[in-house]
Design goal:
- The complex is a heterodimer.
- By secondary structure, chain A is of the alpha/beta class.
- Chain A is 32% helix and 24% strand.
- Chain A has a domain of 179 residues: 3-Layer(aba) Sandwich (Rossmann fold), CATH 3.40.50.
- In chain A, the strands form two sheets. In chain A, strands 6-7-8-3-9-10 form a six-stranded mixed beta sheet, sandwiched between helices.
- In chain A, a hairpin with a 2-residue loop joins strand 1 and strand 2.
- The longest helix of chain A is centred in the middle third of the chain and has 14 residues.
- Chain A starts with 26 loop residues before the first strand and ends in a 5-residue tail after the last helix.
- In chain A, 45% of the residues are buried.
- By secondary structure, chain B is mainly alpha-helical.
- Chain B has one domain: Up-down Bundle (Methane Monooxygenase Hydroxylase, Chain G, domain 1), CATH 1.20.58.220.
- Chain B is 83% helix and 0% strand.
- The chains are: A alpha/beta, B mainly alpha.
- At the A-B interface, helix 8 and helix 10 of A face helix 3 of B.
Chain lengths: 280, 222
């Protein structure tokens, strides 16, 4: 048992666990019997889920089902909330991220996150936004110009901002700001990219651009996307996980499978009711 | 709480149209065979005219289905119901065409009597239209097992078709003057065999709708 928000007494070697066979290829992140609490309220119960490498995993489910809590556990953002704690394991490259030897700040560099509202640093230029993370990890010898360009290209933003690298990041359009945040997350070369409702504040065209970008980035890293938009989950993801708040509003994983199968022939009646819009 | 009652109603209307089309096709099969038995040219012409209303309904259903896909983003069993309907109307329209084909054979007879009293052909027709009716029942009840039963009945049709073929061959061999009329009846048998085959397709779509899996249940061995 790991209680991440509480200090550990003695360092314990992080257990190495091989990928479970159901994910097909390599494992990006393995979630094992994960439960989470906010103070006395349990938000997640016993989630076991494989996030395969170089695939997009969508997490869908109604409000309050624990989707965001789940992905916030993957980079230990959950424990930032006062009173929050977890139990179970999250394995990144076979190592438990809750192991006491793991530095949460270093972990968050490896597991990048993009949020619902684009949140570029308000006082920084486009360029400074992209390299902010690099400066934090103090890689002095690296060529920041080159890395910034590379990250902006990976985020499909370079052509639009190459002439305004010194302008404020907040001067960009909403969709561009979100891609700027993706570029910022990519700059530090994460192993996994988490996206929590990344398009909910964007117009349909900006949304499609982000979705295109997700399809390109999946060639390089595993992506986990939480979305309310089921059509978006159907369009961008390879695998879909459906969550639901069960007894006492505790989030549970109901079903996970290939996205095409989940949207044409889900095995659980609750998944069927939710994705056909007959939930409740 | 039903959150999509308008959508549910539209899907229901689509299914109602599909069943209406099915019953029209059944009637066409029965009427074409009655016209053949009696060599009733007026009845045969009515069958031929009626075929266009089946075609019309087919396009109406197709438009409804496309509209639902474009506006409602159906998923899971809703999506399967619509895709199944889109396939079933194609098969049922062809069944209607085969009934029309039988009516046209009535007209070919002009003043000539039937080669022989009809025994196996009406049986084939009754089995074929029964297969369609039971496939549509299975559709309404979402009953995959009943649909599989329909497919199994295709063997009976195939056996009758062989029997009719051999019988008509003996007529032709013993008296070449019967070749025209024997060939026409052979065409009728062929139309009926195709009708049963299409009914099997309809039943396979029901299995898909219920289970989410495509199954070819009774592969035509010919």
């Amino acid at each position: 048992m790991q209680t991440a928000a509480q200090p550990q007494v003695a360092p314990v070697a992080a257990p190495s666990v091989s990928p479970s066979p159901d994910s097909g290829g390599r494992l990006g992140i393995g979630v094992r019997h994960l439960s989470a609490w906010y103070g006395p309220h349990q938000a997640l119960r016993d989630i076991t889920l494989d996030i395969p490498d170089r695939q997009v995993t969508a997490i869908i489910g109604p409000s309050g089902c624990g989707k965001s809590t789940l992905i916030r556990c993957l980079n230990r953002m959950h424990e930032v909330t006062p009173g929050a704690r977890t139990q179970g394991q999250v394995l990144l490259e076979g190592h438990d991220v809750f192991a006491p030897s793991v530095d949460p700040v270093a972990l968050r560099r490896l597991v990048g996150m993009v949020f619902q509202r684009p949140n570029p640093f308000p006082t920084m230029s486009v360029f400074d936004n992209v390299v902010a993370g690099l400066r934090l990890v103090a890689q002095r010898n690296r060529n920041l110009d080159e890395l910034a360009e590379r990250s902006l290209r990976r985020a499909a933003l370079w052509d639009e901002v190459r002439d305004k690298l010194r302008s404020a990041g907040t001067a960009l359009s909403g969709g561009q700001q979100q891609r700027l945040c993706i570029a910022r997350a990519l700059a530090v070369d994460p192993k996994v990219l988490l996206m929590d409702e990344p398009c909910s504040a964007l117009d349909p065209i900006a949304t499609l651009r982000i979705e295109e970008l997700i399809r390109v980035l999946r060639e390089e890293i595993p992506i986990v996307i939480v979305t309310h938009n089921m059509q978006q989950a159907a369009r961008v993801s390879d695998r879909t996980a459906f969550m639901l708040a069960g007894e006492e509003r505790v989030g549970e994983l109901i079903e996970v499978g290939d996205t095409a199968e989940m949207f044409t022939n889900p095995s659980d009646k609750r998944t069927e009711d939710y994705i056909t819009g007959r939930f409740g | 709480m039903r959150t999509r009652s308008a959508f549910d109603r539209e899907i229901q209307e689509l299914e109602d149209d599909l069943l209406l089309m099915g019953s029209m096709v059944e009637k066409q099969i029965e009427r074409s065979m009655a016209a053949l038995k009696a060599l009733d040219r007026a009845a045969a012409r009515r069958v031929i005219e009626e075929d266009s209303s089946i075609d019309h309904l087919r396009f109406q259903i197709e438009e409804r289905a496309i509209h639902l896909i474009a506006t409602q983003q159906p998923t899971a069993s809703d999506l399967r119901a619509i895709i199944a309907a889109l396939n079933m109307i194609v098969d049922m329209e062809r069944m209607g065409d085969h009934a029309e084909g039988i009516a046209k054979i009535v007209l070919m007879h002009e003043d000539q009597p039937l080669l022989k009293p009809l025994i196996d052909l009406p049986r084939m027709a009754a089995i074929g239209s029964g297969m369609l009716r039971r496939a549509l029942d299975a559709y309404v009840k979402r009953d995959a097992e009943a649909a599989r039963d329909v497919c199994r009945q295709d063997d009976e049709i195939d056996a009758l078709y062989d029997q009719v073929y051999r019988e008509l061959l003996t007529y032709m061999l013993s008296d070449p003057r019967t070749i025209d009329r024997a060939t026409w009846l052979l065409w009728v048998a062929h139309n009926l065999e195709r009708i049963a085959d299409r009914a099997t397709n309809v039943a396979e779509r029901v299995v898909f709708l219920v289970t989410g899996h495509m199954e070819e249940i009774n592969v035509d061995r010919r």
